[in-house]
């Protein structure tokens, strides 16, 4: 269905007509979908399409301009205007690319400043997009008229969270974890700093004393970092809802959290009842390759081939960096398939094939796939796990550093620093994961565990989304902890009270004893004096 | 298959022969099953039979004398001798009955003493049964020769826990929760006393300050209570394993915990990754009633009928108590089906039918079922939930008081105190749950939520048991918290260290300032003196 522009003439009417049409059909849930941009949408699209396919009325709302969000099958797409253009968005993406890959190793300050500025600019775009929709009265009116049963959103971009509050809809979040552990705070999930490593620390669940100290201090600092990240958006939400609110408060109303992991990836830790793990949702069974690709990879003989991508954010890299990788690939017997959209570099080795787009999961599922070079996004890593292919990982930003650490802990890959790596290092890493059989054995074992599940993550996701629609939420999964403040939650009032009682009893006892003792002494003294 | 006696001639040979036979077949897991007696076995039997039916080699080990454990289909049953008789066990059961139902309300001390003594005697029987098996060398040799893939056991009776340690088998526990929250302690699951009510308190998850104080103190006292409960068995285990051990330590090695609840019953609280909820496993779709029963209940007309049982421990009650219930039933228009094995009381009202055994789930699934009078065992309550029948509950012992509290909180039933209740009260409670439509509406809503699940609990149980067998455990679900002591787990060492650093810095600063200040003062004084 072609996207429909909201906020223009006739949009409200169309919404109403759709509602009336649906009322005549057999009951089906009405779901509002507000995704986050970039790879976040990639992981959500399959689920949204499946929900539509199973008969639900799924309405996807997106800005007119976005990096990756696009219409999905079996859904109605509605767009709303935003005050920026595609080329402006692309410019920021390119700038991001410069920051990520081509960082000048000689200037640390410049690097930090550049990263901060990129984050700041991206945050501003998110806020502008939010404002464009939330304060567009016509858009909000149309959405209200739909009378949705629930909203499915990615809280990485807070728009959907605020819309859920405004429209008073049961909300379902899909997330891989949020900065400052907001998902744990909001869902009242315990996450002890002694063995649950914080984001961006790259620690494992087995920490040294020093790491536990850093992890503990990180936990203490997180709320401050969050305040910076969410300040403008909270002001915006408070203005719309006409009450003081915060992201944590709004997110605490979530009916359900879909988490994009399972414990073949994440370190084991407590979960709340309204958390459903759907890690590996994106890796279906791999399909046969197109003839051209099949021919290319088959010519690799017993050596097999390597798949190389750096994710949806980075499709081309600076010439100098590209040459470094080509130099490495020249030295290995494997063939290489590289997702690369820039101009073809000079002296392209014969064993390397550059492609604008790769059927990544199908390639990894090919029996000749020997290694996967990836930036460490969760989607890619799960495709590696699903297909049992050892990995060479080069994290770029965000959670990728933590993600790859999880894979290294399980002995299924090696990590390189993309900013400082050399051809020799790339060759070493590829040879290691390909020729040292332990990597293959461990990833195959991990793959077997990951796939040995009683129900497929897609079915799980669809079931629980429909559950929330059917029952208008999941109130029975909401812990009473939400009704306590942190002082009560940690029983600090109880401890204080008990200590006070003990103190009073001790004081009273001491006082009484002293009093009795003095009385006795005085009597004795008086007796002696009399004597 | 008829039970085979272990520890006699030929038992080892049979075990070996079975092993050899199975090795020739297609791979199937070999599962050792050691259940707990009483209603615990009832809830486990269906799962064990299903595992056998799906091709696994399931070996059920039980004492020659037990209250309820009996051979199951598709399993091999092996028995071991114990130094007590069935009649001795029955005598203790009868004594238990006296304690539970016929308590003399006028003598509280006698009641407490009697309860304590019953518990003590039952505990002694458990220890004797454990000792009979664990130190029977022939039995243990045969079990070792089986080379099992895993053990499935109910840790309520600790025999299976110790056997798992001794045979070094991946262990799967099935439990509804244990005294002293041992299941939470062992699995490193957080259970904050601020909103997770402790056993036997009968509190809900929304506690007053006073209740939170009691719950907190209860948490502090629990380890002492546990020490009493497990002392002898820990001594026995340490003797067998030839190392000092505790129940918590042994249970911390569990690969998987099946919990006999879901959140339509239990209050929402954190769960660990190796916890799988299988509440409601025992209530399949109800079958049609035998003709005689169908005729009886159909004659009840629009008024419908009441189902009355007090569980597997209590099938007959003192005459005087029975008369009280009959007096009540005489006053209601419903028919009553009562599981009752004693002599038929005089003046049995026409609307009451006494039966030695009731097809409880089938009766509750009948459209004319109006109310369920139950002692509040989890099996019964889940049958009530499944079939959406409001309940009148009379808890007798153990977790039943807590169980019924959960149902009352959800507004699906009323509680009576079986020791002090009157006919009038019984009539009042039955009329209330039958005629006040809110009970029916709420239990039907609860039933709908309970049954709206992506996979049936039986399939879930079978899958995860086979998972543990296939992968020789579930190591990827084991939290790193197991490697920390409680001091580290709560980051107390980190906090101590940080506080020390802060103290040292403050002390050093104060010292330096004082030193500088003194130096300055001295110079000024000397200057003044010179002047």
TrEMBL record, chains A, B:
Membrane-traversing stretches: 494-517
Reactions that this protein is recorded to catalyse: glucuronate acceptor + UDP-alpha-D-glucuronate = acceptor beta-D-glucuronoside + UDP + H(+)
Entry keyword annotation includes Transmembrane helix: yes
Gene3D superfamilies, sorted: Glycogen Phosphorylase B
GO molecular function list: glucuronosyltransferase activity
Signal peptide from the UniProt entry: 1-28
Gene responsible for this protein: UGT1A1
Protein name, entry field: UDP-glucuronosyltransferase
Organism annotation: Scleropages formosus (Asian bonytongue)
Listed InterPro entries: UDP-glycosyltransferase, UDP_glucos_trans, UDP_glycos_trans_CS
Top-level EC class: transferase
């Amino acid at each position: 269905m072609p996207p429909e522009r909201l906020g223009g003439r006739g949009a409200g009417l169309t919404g109403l007509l759709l509602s009336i049409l649906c009322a005549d059909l057999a009951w089906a849930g009405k779901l509002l979908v507000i995704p986050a941009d970039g790879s976040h949408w990639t992981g959500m699209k399959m689920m949204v399409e499946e929900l539509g396919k199973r008969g639900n009325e799924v309405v996807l709302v997106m800005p007119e301009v976005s990096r990756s969000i696009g219409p999905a099958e079996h859904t109605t797409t509605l767009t709303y205007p935003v005050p920026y253009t595609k080329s402006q968005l692309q410019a920021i993406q390119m700038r991001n690319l410069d920051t990520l890959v081509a960082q000048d190793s000689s200037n640390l300050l410049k690097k930090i400043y550049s990263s901060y500025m990129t984050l700041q600019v991206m945050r501003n775009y998110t806020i502008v997009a939010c404002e464009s929709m939330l304060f567009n009265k016509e858009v909000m009116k149309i959405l209200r008229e739909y009378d949705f049963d629930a909203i499915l959103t990615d809280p990485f971009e807070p728009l959907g969270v605020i819309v859920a509050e405004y429209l008073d809809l049961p909300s379902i979040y899909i997330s891989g974890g949020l900065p400052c552990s907001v998902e744990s705070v909001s869902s009242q999930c315990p996450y002890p700093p002694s063995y649950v490593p914080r984001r961006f620390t790259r620690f494992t669940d087995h920490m040294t004393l020093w790491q536990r100290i850093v992890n503990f201090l990180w936990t203490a600092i997180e709320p401050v970092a969050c305040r910076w990240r969410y300040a403008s958006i909270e002001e915006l939400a408070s203005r719309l809802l006409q009450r003081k609110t915060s992201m944590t408060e709004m997110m605490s109303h979530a009916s359900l959290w879909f988490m994009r992991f399972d414990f073949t990836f994440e370190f084991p830790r407590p979960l709340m009842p309204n958390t459903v793990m759907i890690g590996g949702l994106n890796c279906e069974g791999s399909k046969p390759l197109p003839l051209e690709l099949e021919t290319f990879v088959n010519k690799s003989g017993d050596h097999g081939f390597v798949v190389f991508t750096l994710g949806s954010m980075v499709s081309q890299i600076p010439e100098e960096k590209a040459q470094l990788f080509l130099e490495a690939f020249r030295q290995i017997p494997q063939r290489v398939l590289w997702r690369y959209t820039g101009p073809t570099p000079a002296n392209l080795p014969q064993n390397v094939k550059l492609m604008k787009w790769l059927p990544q999961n199908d390639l990894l599922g090919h029996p000749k796939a020997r290694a996967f070079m990836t930036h460490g996004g969760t989607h890619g890593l799960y495709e590696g796990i699903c297909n049992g292919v050892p990995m060479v990982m080069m994290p770029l930003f965000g959670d990728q550093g933590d993600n790859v650490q999880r894979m290294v802990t399980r002995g299924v890959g090696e990590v390189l620093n993309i900013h400082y790596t050399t051809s020799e290092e790339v060759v070493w890493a590829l040879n290691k994961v390909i020729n040292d059989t332990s990597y293959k054995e461990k990833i195959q074992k991990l793959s077997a565990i990951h796939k040995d599940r009683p129900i497929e993550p897609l079915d799980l996701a669809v079931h629980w989304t429909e559950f929330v629609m059917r029952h208008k939420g999941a109130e029975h999964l909401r812990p009473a902890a939400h009704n306590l403040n942190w002082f009560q939650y940690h029983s600090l009032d109880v401890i204080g009270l008990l200590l006070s009682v003990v103190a009073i009893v001790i004081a009273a006892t001491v006082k009484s004893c002293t009093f009795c003792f003095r009385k006795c002494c005085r009597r004795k003294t008086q007796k002696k004096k009399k004597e």
